[in-house]
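Submission sheet (multi-component)
Chains listed below:
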Amino acid sequence: MPAKPNARDWNDVQTAIATVAIVATLGMWNLFAEPAKTVTSHVKEPVGPPAEPPVTLEPARMPQVKIMFTQTVPQTNTAQQPQNEKKKKKKNNNNGGGSGSVSVTQTQSS
Amino acid sequence: MVVVADQSRSLKHRVHKMLHFLEFDAMGSKMLAAVERTAKSPTLPHVPDWFEEWEQVLSRFRYDSELTHLNQTHEQPVHVSETLWEVFQAARKATQLTDGLVTPTLLDAIIEAGYDRPFNVLPHQTMVMPAPCITAVQPLTAITTDDSARTIRLPLDISLDFGGIAKGWAAHQAMQRLQDEGPTLVNAGGDIAISGPRADGNPWQIGVMDPFHHDKEVETLYLNACGIATSGKDRRRWTRNGILQHHIIDPFTDQPAETDLLTVTVIAPNAMEAEAAAKAIFILGGRLGLEWVETHPHFAALLIFDNGQMLYSRKLEEYL
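Outcome: structure written.
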């Protein structure tokens, strides 16, 4: 006639009680911890003016003008110069003469 | 009604060829190119480009110009462009014409005198530098050239500066390129090249600037095909250690020429010769200068002295 395994049955009861306790602890922990996490996440949400629609960046367009890096482009001018009257011989041996003439251009020290 | 018709007809008959002109800055000076013709000149707008091209070859103030490159290369032959070669030959003729008074080998002397940068950025009054050391100006004959290979070989102690000769050459060159379109005048900072009489057969009227009052003219000259140039100390001058300096160097002293003349205007067969002759007379001074011009029958000169006195060479009467 075999012996009864009494000791092993008691151990099984202890293990079962510990497992239930751990599961209950974890369950209760999760049950009370979850709402706090939710509140925290709400607090972190930005508070401010309504978000503007996203702006799409496009390459800036260059103005449609010619950019000159030099001085003003010389322009051709046209003049109707009075025709020279008959060449006049004149004596003018002092300063100041010749002013008021219609010279096309001047010579000067270069 | 008849009167109106007559007037319109007379107006029609009075349609003349127009003077088309272009003014621009180049070579540190004011430039003017003018062509007389009925329609607009198609070539005239290109003149500033020509001058820019020439300046890039001939300027001593541009670090990347062909002349700067040549001046930095000594004791070995350098193949040069046609432009630089032509201006060098013009300078050589000027030296021969003036018995060495006008030479392109004065660069070191003019830098010693203080003209070491473009005139518009040169400090005119406050320049204080050590006293100049005398530089020995070398003759142009020390430079060796090869006509067939178009090379120039500079000795160690020679650098070139074409100065006014380059402007005279540029005026003459531009005039030659434009003259097929009509009577032409090109003024390169006072050095003027004229192709011939105006469309109506009359001469061009050219004023000579009054060196004492730059807004006035002292004389009006009536010119056909020729060159005219003025040299003087009324412009491009500065003070160095309290002494007035100017840009025309006497090759026999290596210093700015000491002369009793303020300006000299010369009429010559072309602008390069006019420039050379004006400079030579200026260096020689009033008495010797007038003697010199009278021995050159193709030249006419107007000399203005420091005291305002004006002297006319005999030939100048033809142009008054």
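Remark: Residues 1-15 of chain B have pLDDT under 50 and may be disordered.
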